[in-house]
Amino acid sequence: MRMYDIIEKKRDNKELTTEEIEYFVREYSLSNIEDYQMSALLMAIYLNKMNARELTDLTFAMAKSSNMINLDSIKEEGKFIVDKHSTGGVGDKVTLIVLPIVASLGAKVCKMSGRGLGFTGGTADKLEAIKGYDVNIDIQRAKEQVNDIGVALISQSSDIAIADKKLYALRDVTATVESIDLISASVMSKKIASGADKILLDVTCGSGAFMKDIASARRLAQTMVNIGKIANIETKAIITSMDEPLGRSVGNAVEIKEVISFLLSDETTLNSKSLKGLKDVVFECAAWMLKLANVGEDIEENKVKIMEEITSKRAYNKFIELIKAQGGHIHSVYMDLLGMSIDMPVLNDQVKYLKDIRAEKSGHIVSIDSKKIGEALVSLGGGRKTKQDSIDHAVGFEFINKVGSKVNESDTILKVFYNDKEKFDEAFEYIKDAIVIENLEDTLGEALSNKPHILDII
Ligand code: URA
Prior knowledge:
The chain is built from 18 helices and 15 strands. It is an alpha+beta fold. The chain folds into three domains: about 5-50, Up-down Bundle (Transferase, Pyrimidine Nucleoside Phosphorylase, Chain A, domain 3); about 70-330, Pyrimidine Nucleoside Phosphorylase, Chain A, domain 2 (3-Layer(aba) Sandwich), CATH 3.40.1030; about 355-450, Alpha-Beta Complex (Aldehyde Oxidoreductase, domain 3), CATH 3.90.1170.30. The strands form five sheets. It has a four-stranded mixed beta sheet, with helices on both faces. Strands 6-11-13-9 form a four-stranded antiparallel beta sheet, with helices on both faces. Strands 12-10-14 form a three-stranded antiparallel beta sheet. Strand 7 (about 330-335) and strand 8 (about 340-345) form a beta hairpin. Helix 1 packs parallel to helix 3 (about 35-50). Uracil (URA) binds near residues 87, 88 and 177.
């Protein structure tokens, strides 16, 4: 078999055989195919797409390209192991909140998370903003930890779906990321290889996501759900809005702070307007994970249990248990609001500078382009420009006002935490174009604030 013939066939929009697909996945994983030939094939797939049979073959070939994890040793009678995956976003700290909640309610979770890609953040990077937290424990130790405390959150191991690791890095530099076929195969190959019984997908949609509109997000969600069916892994997809950054913070340490504050919130705060978007996504994902795990059948009842788990601080205590189990440093902090001392993670959050970005005019904020905010974070050093870059965990943004807010000229919209003035100037080029203010009727501003975050469930 020759790679040249496979490229030519896909270029001419012909169907590839199972043998051809298995050949290029295997040989590329073994580094027997050059990047220039694989790039040409990826672009041909991007442009001419794959049919359902080709896509299934591609996904399974990628899943089997290295170790498949077996999670039998953490299974419990009558319950299922559920994995979660988000297609990526800006300010997306949902996994960090959802995992302790569902583990605290009795669903066991052994999750591997990725690092930041392009302008989107990664859970593994955020966890490393906690001093001492080890994302690199091996899968055997992670499974033991799940049997002890119900949860482990580790970095995507390099020997899982090795084909995806190599192909993703190539797609990232050949403008072939935003393909429904290639994203589906990438996500589902990793999930199939990770050994869970069921999968919950958070398919993000909007300016800060790979899918910019709801029709494409639905197609991506349905494609992945169909692959799950073929793999005999029940898969549910929640389409969520990523038009503006999720929640109030974007960065690594700042997002961990937001997770802490979310998990320490009382019911009034959780129901407040300022937490609405993040709360809706967290509650929907956690409720579906509990249902898939066979821990709670009814989604609305699950949401009531989730509220109780947070307000009782049991979910927060599970978060602290997880951090301690993976070596994270903890200190005790007296909190006036709670009238007691509580354990807190110690963060790499030291910055030299803080700057307020202020409204240039009065009006309503009509949009905050998440992609530009994600790019601004990369410019500050909070994300990677190349795979080898190290990350400054302390830099980031805290939004004081978000889409729909009414602001007066010179009101603070966001705070920037940074360590390098030149990097700030680079980041500012993105920030200044990211926020649009217009004169609107108050009712329209209100409608923008209340835009739903759960767009569909497939
Ligand atoms: N997330 C993934 O894991 N893969 C993609 O291709 C895109 C988002």
